[in-house]
């Protein structure tokens, strides 16, 4: 009995060792296979491509915006934290991906997904994504990105030219001059805003006489040397929260970000801005920058950039424009005058992954003065030499991918006129939606759209008469707020269409009240007037269901 047990144990051990050994060879073999470049159509990679393309096709062709899986149930499927021991087959991994991830991903391309700044992409970016990943260029330096460095500079110069429109000689001199920086390509608008304020801070608190400059000596020493009580950045209360991050990182703290109230049209109040500048000057606070917003994230409104440019110029302060969303209006003859004054900005942020219809990860910051970015330049003897062409020396990020490929391609394959068409069409459709909302008793438009963002709300039946007469009480408005919150959540959960939600302070009967607003972003080129009608009808249907059930309470707690 004991003997046979021993034998059994022994053979089990042998088996284990044996399988591990076999697996060792199998693992090496399998892993090495993954690295073989393969061009034949019968190759493993070609099969992977076909399978993945099918998955992409299925995903993009669905009109629904999402599956209706409960989020908590979804989270439950991602709780295992053990790394798999042996390499899995691509087929089985793709199947896992399809069932667990792709199936429950948001279809940001759906023509009825009209509540977010992320939307459909042109098909060429999917093909070029393969090329970009395959080449795996690292744009941090020319040793890993020989063609990509000047290629990126050219694409950025094209955008710079649209913003600033300097003479030919300017571009001839600076496009490929490694001492000049016309723009920096980063991961997004957040990083772009941070870099702009970083440049502004370093340039304004520069090295002088015995003082080494803020870059080397730090903020405390800089303020001390220049005799300031503190440092601030000033802009509208509707500035994107990336400015809070920037203020934090730059050492002025988020309390150093001065937020100026806005007028009824969501634009910075100019007299309050002038007053704030004067206050800071009298308190001996150093103003690092004044920020103008060209397309607020909430409602798309554009600050009066010309006036802000005047204020900044008079105060001799860096003028930054956050045009992450609204920047691409420069492509439109009809609408570009809404950005008048942007050409006077010292720096401008534009997101390529928003209204240039490029994949995520294309933030850009442009500089009026090509030497500005030297204020943040860093060199490293082993890689980033001073006179080199390396793009990493004037950047926040280090290694980064060749995302410029998409920008350069978009500027050619869509072109100036193509982008103009897309921008104009989005604004036109937004006006259509605003007109529909105005004509429907179920809805109330909350502000006239400047561009292609729209705020409105649903008015439940029992409040409609009072709403039309503008006689809603504060408690009526609160109830309407709760209803709209439930409506938006129920719509998102149903997954047939999507509108986002925000909170807006408005003046109602001479009183400031907080309103829950439904927020439409009409940027998807695939969205038609029929889709807009369908989304509004979907909301009416859901609202009726909500009114007739007591699910309101339940939803509120989500
Ligand atoms: C989107 C946006 C940002 C932030 O950009 P990310 O690309 O999300 O980092 C900043 N400002 C405005 C006005 C935006 O719309």
From TrEMBL:
<dbReference type="InterPro" id="IPR015422">
    <property type="entry name" value="PyrdxlP-dep_Trfase_small"/>
</dbReference>
<dbReference type="InterPro" id="IPR002129">
    <property type="entry name" value="PyrdxlP-dep_de-COase"/>
</dbReference>
<dbReference type="Pfam" id="PF00282">
    <property type="entry name" value="Pyridoxal_deC"/>
</dbReference>
<keyword id="KW-0210">Decarboxylase</keyword>
<dbReference type="InterPro" id="IPR015421">
    <property type="entry name" value="PyrdxlP-dep_Trfase_major"/>
</dbReference>
<dbReference type="InterPro" id="IPR022517">
    <property type="entry name" value="Asp_decarboxylase_pyridox"/>
</dbReference>
<comment type="similarity">
    <text>Belongs to the group II decarboxylase family.</text>
</comment>
<dbReference type="InterPro" id="IPR015424">
    <property type="entry name" value="PyrdxlP-dep_Trfase"/>
</dbReference>
<keyword id="KW-0456">Lyase</keyword>
<keyword id="KW-0663">Pyridoxal phosphate</keyword>
<protein>
    <submittedName>
        <fullName>Pyridoxal-dependent aspartate 1-decarboxylase</fullName>
    </submittedName>
</protein>
């Amino acid at each position: 009995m004991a003997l046979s047990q021993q034998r059994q144990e022994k053979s089990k051990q042998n088996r284990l060792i044996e399988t591990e050994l076999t697996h060792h060879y199998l693992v090496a073999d399998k892993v090495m296979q993954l690295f073989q470049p393969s061009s034949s159509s019968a190759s493993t990679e070609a099969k992977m491509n076909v399978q993945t393309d099918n998955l992409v096709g299925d995903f993009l062709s669905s009109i629904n915006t999402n599956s209706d899986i409960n989020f908590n149930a979804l989270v439950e499927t991602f709780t295992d934290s053990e790394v798999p021991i042996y390499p899995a087959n691509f087929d089985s991994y793709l199947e896992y991906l399809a069932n667990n991830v792709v199936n429950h991903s948001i279809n940001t391309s759906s023509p009825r997904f009209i509540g977010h700044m992320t939307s459909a992409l042109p098909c060429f970016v999917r093909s070029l994504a393969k090329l970009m990943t395959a080449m795996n260029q690292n744009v941090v330096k020319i040793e890993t990105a020989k063609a990509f460095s000047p290629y990126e500079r050219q694409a950025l110069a094209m955008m710079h030219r649209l913003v600033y429109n300097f003479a030919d000689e300017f571009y001839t001199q600076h496009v490929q001059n490694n001492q000049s920086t016309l723009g920096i390509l980063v991961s997004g608008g957040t990083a772009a805003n941070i870099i702009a304020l970083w440049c502004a801070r370093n340039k304004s608190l520069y090295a002088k006489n015995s003082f080494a400059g803020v870059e080397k000596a730090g903020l405390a020493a800089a303020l001390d040397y220049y005799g300031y009580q503190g440092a601030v950045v000033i802009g509208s209360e509707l500035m994107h929260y990336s400015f809070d991050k920037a203020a934090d990182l730059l050492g002025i703290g988020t309390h150093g970000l001065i937020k100026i109230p806005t007028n009824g049209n969501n634009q910075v109040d100019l007299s309050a801005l002038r007053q704030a500048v004067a206050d800071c000057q009298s308190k001996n606070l150093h103003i690092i920058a004044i920020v103008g917003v060209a397309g607020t994230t909430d409602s798309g409104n554009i600050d009066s950039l010309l006036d802000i440019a005047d204020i900044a110029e008079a105060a001799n302060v860096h003028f930054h424009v956050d045009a992450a969303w609204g920047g691409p209006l420069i492509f439109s003859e009809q609408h570009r005058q809404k950005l008048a004054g942007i050409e006077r900005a010292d720096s401008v942020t534009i997101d390529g992954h928003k209204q240039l219809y490029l994949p995520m990860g294309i933030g850009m910051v442009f500089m009026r003065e090509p030497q500005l970015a030297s204020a943040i330049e860093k060199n490293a003897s082993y890689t980033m030499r001073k006179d080199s062409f390396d793009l990493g020396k004037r950047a926040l990020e280090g290694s980064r991918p060749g995302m410029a490929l998409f920008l350069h391609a978009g500027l050619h394959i869509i072109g100036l006129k193509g982008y103009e068409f897309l921008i104009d069409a989005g604004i036109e459709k937004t006006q259509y939606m605003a007109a529909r909302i105005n004509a429907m008793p179920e809805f109330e438009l909350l502000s006239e759209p400047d561009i292609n963002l729209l705020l409105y709300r649903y008015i439940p039946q029992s409040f409609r008469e009072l709403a039309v007469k503008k006689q809603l009480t504060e408690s009526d408005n609160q109830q309407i707020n709760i209803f709209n919150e439930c409506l938006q959540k129920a719509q998102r959960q149903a997954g047939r269409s999507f509108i986002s939600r925000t909170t807006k302070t408005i003046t109602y009967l001479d009183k400031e009240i907080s309103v829950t607003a439904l927020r439409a972003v009409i940027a998807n080129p695939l969205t038609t007037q029929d889709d807009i009608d369908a989304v509004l009808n979907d909301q009416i249907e859901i609202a009726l269901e909500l009114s007739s059930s007591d699910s309101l309470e339940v939803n509120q707690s989500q």
